[in-house]
């Protein structure tokens, strides 16, 4: 017996592709896919399709790319799809006129264990905060962002060395399975809803606001663990950054991103932010509680490189960190 649910899927980045693929391959009727309009990118400013659009086009699915969700033509097209259920993964905020349209509501897949880490950057923020676990949640949308009733959750451990990129990939796989489980349960009517406030038990939820450039800057006067978590929590995207300044110059600043580091607990009497290098294989920064050993970085406008390759063509001895 085939699936009767009519589903509209909404998403844009790579994180949203696997969940859509799982639902299509399970035989569900995806009657429409809503994704961002094509955008110019790269040096040639060629129009680029979203990852979700590429998959939807290859799968022969109907695609809608509204500039505005309240556009009358888009709302008409959406209504004509007669969806029983809408699914949202890594997408923009939707107005009520959109999320309230299907009779079963609109389900969102969120990359955290709600009610904690509500907001735009749950994966980065969890690692930056040194959490030892995270997870994925499916819930029904309502007015306040990421506050709707929970359907299912799946916990994922965060290893001590795990980067945000590695957590992203694991949550993507777990999230795809959880969303499929959610759709199957909703089709059968075999699910319960949990009010998020009952899980908070009077405390405030942890939030995960959008990350801006200044949030990415490394504060070298911080604790060893804090700096270490900051760097891995922004790796590989958007990337923690710092600045090198030529010794004896007040103007020559080189911006660089750091993607991989090692933390070395050590008692020392060096100034925080002071650099030590052997000129060949090590780029160490003294911080409170030890040393941050930089293993992979990228100078602005250059390619990513291992520290050995970087030091082969760069005299680090002539620079200091701008703290």
The share of residues in extended strands comes to 25-35%
Structural class: alpha+beta
Order of helices and strands: EHEEEHEHEHEHEEHHHHEEEEEEHE
The CATH architecture category of the largest domain equals 3-Layer(aba) Sandwich
CATH H-level superfamily of the largest domain: Formyl transferase, N-terminal domain
Query: Could you estimate the helical fraction of the residues in percent?
Result: 25-40%
Strand order of the largest sheet: 5-2-1-6-7-8-9
Count helical runs.
10
Distance between the termini: 65 Å
Major sheet details:
7 strands, mixed
* Shape, per Cα inertia axes: elongated
CATH topology of the largest domain: Rossmann fold
Describe it.
The protein is built from ten helices and 16 strands. Strands 5-2-1-6-7-8-9 form a seven-stranded mixed β-sheet. Strands 10, 11, 12, 13, 14, 15 and 16 form a seven-stranded antiparallel β-sheet that branches. Strands 3-4 form a two-stranded antiparallel ribbon. It has helices at 17-25, 51-58, 72-80, 96-99, 122-128, 164-188, 196-200, 213-216, 224-232, 307-312, and strands at 6-11, 29-34, 39-41, 46-48, 63-64, 85-89, 106-110, 133-140, 150-157, 240-246, 253-265, 275-277, 283-287, 290-299, 305-306, 319-321. It folds into two domains: 6-200, Rossmann fold, CATH 3.40.50; 213-321, Methionyl-tRNA Fmet Formyltransferase, Chain A, domain 2. The mean pLDDT is 96. Strand 6 (85-89), helix 4 (96-99) and strand 7 (106-110) form a beta-alpha-beta unit.
